[in-house]
Amino acid sequence: MRKRITTALVGFGVAATTVLATGGSAQGHGYTQSPMSRQAYCANGTVTNCGSIQWEPQSVEGPKGFPAAGPADGKICSAGNAAFAQLDDPRGGNWPATQLRPGQGFTFTWKMTAPHRTTDFKYYITKDGWDPTKPLTRASLEPQPFMTVHMGGRQPAFTESHQGTIPTNKSGRHLILGVWTVHDTANAFYACSDVTF
What we know:
Elements: H1 2-23, E1 29-34, H2 38-43, E2 61-63, E3 98-99, E4 105-114, E5 118-125, E6 147-150, E7 159-165, E8 173-182, E9 187-196
Parallel strand pairs: 3-9
Antiparallel strand pairs: 1-4, 2-9, 4-7, 5-6, 5-8, 8-9
């Protein structure tokens, strides 16, 4: 009997160690798939020369509090993470873009690999006259989000969808910045999606 208990405990210890080793200290992780984000295009191979983001599209995490805090201007799409700097490169304004119509209803969708308690999701869009050949700055964005989804600390689903309306007064090429604010850490996740009207 003692041998069986010892074997079971050793087996449990190995399983627990495996979970800890593979799970690490991962908190929330996710990225937008609708409209397709830059990291999603890198992950699915549509865009190449993306560096490590192609294997970690869910890891674009940086300080929360945007726009008062958060990643520095010019480094917003990478969340200030140097390993993902390719996301800040405007590539001459040639990132693939989702076609939208002004004022249309739209379902914004995040793919979560590790959902985490959430304060809110906010969606910003660039101002008219934004230059898609330059890295994203706060001055490039409308000062207020066009949509905010309050979560009150709830945990999102592995596929998190938000029904909203695209701003009515936009034309040409723009960028939508999705910011997922984690409730109980100091961080948020950032996703830049290029769009065209």
